[in-house]
Automatic annotation (TrEMBL):
Gene: GPAT3_1
Annotated metabolic or biological route of this protein: Glycerolipid metabolism; triacylglycerol biosynthesis; Lipid metabolism; Phospholipid metabolism; CDP-diacylglycerol biosynthesis; CDP-diacylglycerol from sn-glycerol 3-phosphate: step 1/3
The entry's keywords: Acyltransferase, Endoplasmic reticulum, Lipid biosynthesis, Lipid metabolism, Membrane, Phospholipid biosynthesis, Phospholipid metabolism, Transferase, Transmembrane, Transmembrane helix
InterPro entries: LPCAT1-like (IPR045252), Plipid/glycerol_acylTrfase (IPR002123)
A GO BP entry: phospholipid biosynthetic process
Listed name of the protein: Glycerol-3-phosphate acyltransferase 3
GO annotations of cellular component type: endoplasmic reticulum membrane
Membrane topology (UniProt): Multi-pass membrane protein
Family: Belongs to the 1-acyl-sn-glycerol-3-phosphate acyltransferase family.
Top-level taxonomic group: Eukaryota
GO MF annotation terms: glycerol-3-phosphate O-acyltransferase activity
Domain Phospholipid/glycerol acyltransferase: 1-70
Record localization: Endoplasmic reticulum membrane
Pfam families (alphabetical): Acyltransferase
Length: 165
């Protein structure tokens, strides 16, 4: 990873997040360097939706080159449901699949608008990726795979439902 200039950090450490932001800004400033590949969801889900993006990727400036990736499960499923399958079972399933096929769409570059904050920019990029991949947009992050839904989020959804009814 050191030879390919990976930027490693511990998400829970505030100092690490600031250091990563600084390293990314420095990288972007040097025009001779290759673009940075970032997966702003921070995790993968079941190929039907695009989850909330981490805003840090969109705070540093520069041009975003969105890419939509959607797996075709007809030959083999690349999604690992860690609550259902062990790592060894998942690896066995992937290695014995006929093929892992995915569609990749390179979308037009996007730049943060003047009055736009990082969250709105991230949501705009996410919506473009979801639309191209034929996926739905989710307002929450991948933590729901491993944690219970917050009561405040449930209440917010209940209020929205009551307004509809």
């Amino acid at each position: 990873m050191q030879t390919t200039q990976h930027v490693l950090f511990e998400r829970s450490e505030m100092k690490d997040r600031h250091l990563v932001r600084k390293k990314i800004r420095e990288h972007i400033a040097e025009k001779a360097k290759l673009p940075i590949l970032i997966f702003p969801e921070g995790t993968c889900i079941n190929n039907t939706s695009v989850m909330m993006f981490k805003k840090g990727s969109f705070e540093v400036g520069g041009t975003i080159h969105p890419v939509a990736i959607k797996y075709d499960p007809r030959f083999g499923d690349a999604f690992w449901n860690s609550t259902k399958y062990s790592m060894m079972t998942y690896i066995f399933n992937v290695m014995t699949s006929w093929a892992i096929v995915c569609n990749v769409w390179y979308l037009p570059p996007m730049v943060k608008e003047e009055e736009e904050d990082a969250v709105h920019f991230a949501n705009r990029v996410k919506a473009v990726i979801a639309a191209r991949g034929g996926m739905s947009v989710l307002p929450w992050d991948g933590g729901l795979k491993r944690k219970k839904v917050k009561e405040s989020f449930k209440e917010e959804q209940q209020k929205k439902y009551c307004q509809i009814v």
